[in-house]
Design a protein that fits this description.
Strand content: 15-25%
Radius of gyration: 21 Å
Organism: Paralimibaculum aggregatum
Number of helices: 15
Protein name: Patatin-like phospholipase family protein
Keywords: Hydrolase, Lipid degradation, Lipid metabolism, Membrane, Transmembrane, Transmembrane helix
Largest sheet: 10 strands, mixed
Order of helices and strands: HEEHHEHEHHHEHEHHEEHHEEHEHEH
Shape: globular
Helix content: 40-55%
Structural class: alpha/beta
Distance between the termini: 46 Å
């Protein structure tokens, strides 16, 4: 029998909105104490600003291993387009030679913490439906980064995603270290359990499979936030895997962990880098701090790319939002932290909506067939802890049904009313 999400007694009930506000309040407490001088600073050797562009994580120097996610210099755009053109010619050699239309499918997965169970279930249902395509490009942020790894590698990994999103609870992933975090640490939770999970699933075999897919011209991209620069970073995971570097697997594991590191709540990712033979470090946190879901930089015009390549490319994009876009009504206590915490949660939600509209604008400009879905607003199950296997199993089953149905995609942002 499939378990369903349960509701606790009114006095102990923990809503998802409440969990989000709790995390935001914890963040607020940390910021207040930091302002009061109650915390210490992590000893680091941060990359000098003028050396950011030359920094190589773990000394790995692979072509276009990562780029900024907010803006690109023209020289970066030119490099991206050249490398992609070479990949497309290789991947679709017969279509290009014969002048046939190339069909290109992308998948973008948002953040959402435990609500990533929805996206994991949707992929499984899509597989069962029988018309799930092979994705040429897969992007993921935060929990979407975990899903993206296995969505990129195909349906054979659906069971891995089901296991990740239905069998682990909070105690498997972290322990609370509030006092340490508030009086000198980097976070309020110790996530060594989560790191063990990442190391367990991102194996040498997985890295080799990613490298093979990259060699075939397919892309897997994960987003983090470089908190020193306050800018989004897009990591080309296939390029890292294909580098053959001894630390490639470790860097991929670091990036996945950093992508879901909620600032001040989860420890940041400290990634060692090299510049001119000298060792520095970068601090990366949750990609959702700067973008909840991503596709490609608006600086890249695919129409120009197609023209220069001399082929017709029919592009379809699927965007999975592992969140409800309509938040439940919840009166706020007239207290500083309650107000600040709820406002922070609203800002994050608003940021996600803005990301969807940016993707919509790019899709309109470049002629993409856009398809968007999110957790249905009538799903009202509630978790009893941050990572509640019963709640996540229920959400996974809902996502699976959405994938099976295959008709819950919208060509517009879900709150957008097109002209008649």
């Amino acid at each position: 029998m499939t378990p369903t999400a349960t509701r606790s007694a009114p006095g102990a009930r923990v809503t998802l909105a409440g969990l989000r506000r709790l995390l935001a309040r914890i963040l607020g407490i940390g910021l207040l104490l930091a302002a009061a001088g109650c915390t210490t600073v992590l000893v680091r050797n941060a990359v000098p600003e003028d050396k950011l562009e030359q920094a190589h994580p773990y000394g790995i120097d692979a072509p276009l291993m990562r780029i900024w996610g907010d803006s690109l210099r023209q020289e970066d755009v030119d490099r991206v387009l050249k490398i992609r053109a070479d990949s497309v010619r290789q991947r679709f050699r017969e279509e290009s030679a014969g002048g046939r239309t190339i069909h290109h499918v992308s998948l973008a997965l948002s953040g959402g913490g435990p609500d990533g169970a929805f996206g994991a279930g949707l992929l499984a249902g899509w597989t069962a439906r029988g018309d799930r395509p092979e994705f040429q490009v897969v992007t993921g942020v935060s929990t979407g980064a975990i899903i993206a790894l296995f969505a990129f590698l195909g349906p054979d990994h659906d069971d891995t995603l089901r296991e990740i999103y239905t069998t682990y609870s909070s105690k498997d992933l972290f322990i609370r270290t509030f006092f340490t975090g508030l009086t000198g640490g980097t976070a309020l939770l110790d996530t060594r359990g989560y790191r063990k999970l990442i190391d367990r699933y991102i194996t040498d075999e997985i890295v080799a499979d990613i490298a093979e897919a990259y060699a075939e011209g397919r892309l897997l991209m994960i987003g983090t936030t470089n908190i020193d620069a306050s800018r989004p970073v897009i990591w080309n995971i296939g390029a890292i895997a294909a580098s053959g570097h001894a630390d490639a697997k470790r860097l991929i594991q670091d990036v996945v962990q950093a992508s879901s590191a909620i600032p001040a709540v989860f420890p940041p990712g400290i990634i060692p880098v090299e510049v001119d033979g000298k060792r520095y470090d970068e601090m990366h946190v949750d990609g959702g701090a700067t973008q909840q879901v991503m596709l490609y930089s608006p600086a890249i015009r695919l129409g120009d790319f197609d023209h220069d390549l001399g082929v017709k490319i029919d592009r379809t994009v699927y965007v999975v939002i592992n969140n409800k876009l309509e938040k439940p009504y919840a009166p706020v206590r007239p207290r500083l932290l309650s107000i600040a915490g709820t406002a922070a949660s609203s800002l994050i939600g608003g940021s996600g909506s803005g990301d969807v509209y940016r993707i919509f604008a790019v899709a309109e400009r470049d002629g993409l067939d856009l398809n968007i879905t999110a957790i249905p607003t009538d799903f009202d199950a509630e978790p009893n802890e941050m990572f509640d296997p019963v709640y996540m199993t229920s959400l996974y089953q809902l996502g699976r049904q959405v994938g099976l149905d295959g008709n819950r995609w919208s060509p517009y942002p879900l709150d957008f009313v097109p002209a008649e």
